[in-house]
Amino acid sequence: MSQEARIASIVAGIQGNPRHIEFPKDNGKPRYTSDIYGENVFSLKEMSRTLPKPVYQQFLRQIRGGQTLDKTTADAIAHAVRVWAMDRGATHFTHWFQPQTDSTAEKHDAFLTLKSTFTPHGEEVTPLDVFSGSQLLQSEPDASSFPSGGMRTTFEARGYTVWDTKSPMFIQEGPHRTSILYIPSVFISYNGEALDEKTVLLRSSEALSKAACELLALIDPVPAGHPPRVGHVFTTLGTEQEYFLIDRSLYALRPDLKTTGRTLLGRLPPRHQQLEDHYFGRIPSRVLAAMSECELELYKLGVPIKTRHNEVAPAQFEMAPIFEEAMIAVDHNLLTMDVMHKVAHRHKLKVLYHEKPFKGVNGSGKHCNWSMSTDAGENLLDPTVRPESNYRFLLFLVATLKAVHDYGAILRAGIASASNEHRLGANEAPPGIISAFLGDHLTEVLNSLEEGRPIKNFSVPEFQTIKLGGTVLDLKVSNLPTISRDLTDRNRTSPFAFTGNKFEFRAVGSKQSPSFPVTLLNAAVAASIIEITERLRKQMGDKQYPSDQDKLVVIKEVIKETKNIRFEGDNYSDAWVKEAAKRGLPNINNCVDAFKQLTDNKHVEMLTKTGIFSTIELQSRYHILMEKYAKDILIEASTLIGMINQQVLPAAYAYRKDVAQGAHLLKDVDVDAQPEVVLLKEMSPHLSALQKDVAELEKQVETISDKHEDIEAMAHGACHQLLPLMEKVREHADALEGMTGDKYWPMPRYTELLFNI
After folding, report:
1. What is the rounded CA–CA span in Å between residue 96 and residue 171?
2. What is the C-alpha to C-alpha distance for residues 180 and 86, in angstroms, rounded to an integer?
3. Where does the record place the GS beta-grasp domain (predicted)?
4. C-alpha 354 chain-centroid distance
5. Phi and psi at residue 242, to the nearest 5°
6. Which residue spans of the chain are classified as CATH 3.10.20.70?
7. What global pTM score does this model have?
């Protein structure tokens, strides 16, 4: 029966009619992507078209921080967006927010309301479509059922979602050709504490902007009476989203994938990624169809998806957008994940965002490409042609390095999760040691400044032509052009690598919301910029502004102080782990120790002093993360127990019984049954050990679950007792999978999951 279900799922996937949609056309001619882009977004352009000019100007002043949104303006915007949305089929609206679940949440309310009028003949009810400014600005979801980490009790249920006016509203298709108006929002408690991921991200962006603007005003002064050259600095973000796609029917036959997002059992197939032929290979037809449909929907939603390709592991893929302001980029990343989830279902596929759904092949990350930009569009991490004399660039570069040096442990906390723990340090992703990679050119720039000597001339004989501040490559083939070469190579093993004009925070997990890791990064950089600004003021003494020499003194100081976290080699190697220990860098290799950083006095002081978290919010988040970690692993352990007892052991018993009966019959007819006997003897030790280990796992699950009032004890037990025991159980189960006849095995194997798309 098990084999029949697997075969039926495979055949259905092969024989099923592929889903086909028409790309939008205008008079029979395909529309350009630029024409489709953002058509389902209530953008500033749409607002300027639909709102009275004074109302629109009032709104612009509000989003620039000039004033709060008054009732008249809110009512006008609410009316305009309702008409715009209903003209596109909207029947409901929702405040769309980001609770601390690595996902999004929404509650739908209808535009429809009833107006009662009492007449001599009785009550007359008139149906109306209404959406007021107060309904636009805030809503009241039940806060008691979202993670609060003890800030709220069950009977204190009130919470508020508040419209984030800088993030545009949009519509998404609903059932039966209807649609829903989405209002991006923050989520706060009755007393104003952040219950979500977005509030703290917005705070961190403001803290960094304030710190950066103060530094820029100091080093790049303007004449008295003139406005500052830079009024706002914002962080930019590009999130490279990796994921797996598998056949949905086969997914339905795997209880572990359905419940936990990863396979708790499974042997590697003879061929997986060792031939290195999947990366950038031909995209499978069904996958490409799903990707294309997903991109079409995202273009309409104003999500600038740019890149798609096969990733390293079989059935693994990636989508990446153009860079945007961080808060918009986070919204768009979460939208991308949601849209791909829905579109995959339409193509009878299942998208897996878990960081390590398959043991033995590469897991998935969400590489966060991060930088800082001024409101004039200048990238503060652009080295320009001569980085060695670009003191503005150098100050912001060393400020970022100082953030990694001083607060690497809290950055590690931001990427910690039960799922990402399986990926970090697994020879495919950066380890738990947070270091920075700059590349040969910038490393030489910093070293030469520190040592007070000229920069060495980089040259590669015959193949490289030097030009100031960069290089070109001569390929020695007449019909190929000379190509530009970046200042730095790429280091795929580094958790925080400089890649031309930005840093790539590679250690973020694919399932995570980017909000929390980016919030902590923004906070650390803001704190470092503040310290560097104070040092500059101290260095320049009584002068009104720092001289280039003053800047250079501070830059050299920070270069020396942060040298330990700069590493240009292989972060996957054991040698680096030993070297990092010599340098005094923390190597945090489990979530329990990582989350503890949120309670460290140094980190608490930095995060509260910058105004990004309150003490109670940090305590709450620590509690939430520890509790979620413990629950995730308890769910995995319970799922594994069920699979072993209900599927693996019965399958192995049935196969062993048939083999034993066959051996007995062979002996009755005087035929050598030694092959069967050998197999039985190989299976029996694994069966005995599996029974013993599963019984112990059940006992530990019960013991740890009983500690539910002590979250730290639960998390420690899950980390140090359950995970090692689960690995022992898996070892025996995977061995039995290799011995048990295929028709007996109750669930799809890795070969079927990874190669049937």
Report:
1. 11
2. 9
3. 91-192
4. 10
5. -95, 150
6. 33-119+128-141+149-192
7. 0.93
